[in-house]
TrEMBL record:
This is S-adenosyl-L-methionine-dependent methyltransferase superfamily protein. It comes from the Eukaryota. GO terms for biological process: methylation. Keywords: Methyltransferase, Transferase.
Amino acid sequence: MASVRFFPNSCMLFSQKITKSQTNFKFFVSASPFLLSKLHSIPRKASIFTHSLAEKDVVTSAPENPSSNSISKYNNSPFQGLDDIITGYIFGKKKATEVAHSVWKNVIRKGDVVVDATCGNGYDTLAMLRLVADETRRGRVYAMDLQKVALENTYSLLGQSVNSDERELVELYAICHTKMEEIVPSGAAVRLVAFNLGYLPGGDKKIITRSETTLHALEASKRVLAPGGLISIVVYVGHAGGRDEFETVQAFASELPVDNWVCCKLQMLNRPLAPVP
C-alpha cells in the first residue's frame, strides 16, 4: 500500500506563490482572511474592493472599468462565483476556511504544485490534494508543521479520505515554514501557498505561530510563488500574540507593489476577536 511520505527536518514551514504577471491576492484570517494574488498580466490600474462580512474582511481585485459590482462578474478573479459562499459567511453559516477553499478552486488547476505552510489537522492539505490530483500524477502538495501530532493527524485524515495513489502526491515535512524553499523544488511553479495561523485546534494552545517566523515565511512565499498564484492566510487574533501576528501580516501585504499584487482582507469590524481570512 502506498503511503504519505514523511520528511523530518528542523522546523515547520508555510508558503505559497502566485503566477507571474497576474493579479496577486492574499487571504489573512485572524478571524480575518487575507488573499494575496500575483498578477499574470499587469494592468494599468487595479481596483480593490473591500467587503465587510461576518467575522472577516475580504479585499478583492477587479479588472479595469468593471461593468458590475458582483464578484462573479470579474473574469479571471479568484473571487469569481463566490456570491453564495460569501453570503453564507456574512450570515454565520460558513467558516473563514470555507471561504478560502472556495477561492482556491478558482486558482488551483489539476497537476499544480501547492504548499500548505501550516498543515495542522490536515483539512487544508486534503482540500489542496483534491484540487491538484488527477491521472497525470504531476500535482504535488508540500505540507509542513513543527508539531508531530499535526503531521500524524494529517497523515491519518489523508489515509481515511483518499486512495493510496493520491496520498503519494502529498509530502509531509517536520520543518519550519521559514525553510519552505528547502523543500520546494527549484523552478517549481507553485500556484498556492496557504497559511492557517495561530495554534493547533485541539492541541496545546501555548504552541503558536509567531510574527517573526511568519514574516520570514511570507517573504519565502513571495519567492517561490509563480505569477498568477495566490498566498492565502487565515489569521486568528483571539489568543496571546495573535494581534501582533495579524498586524505583521497586514503590514506585509500593504507593502507589496501595486503593479504586481492585489491584496484582500475580510474582517468583522464589530467582532474584534473573530478570525480574519
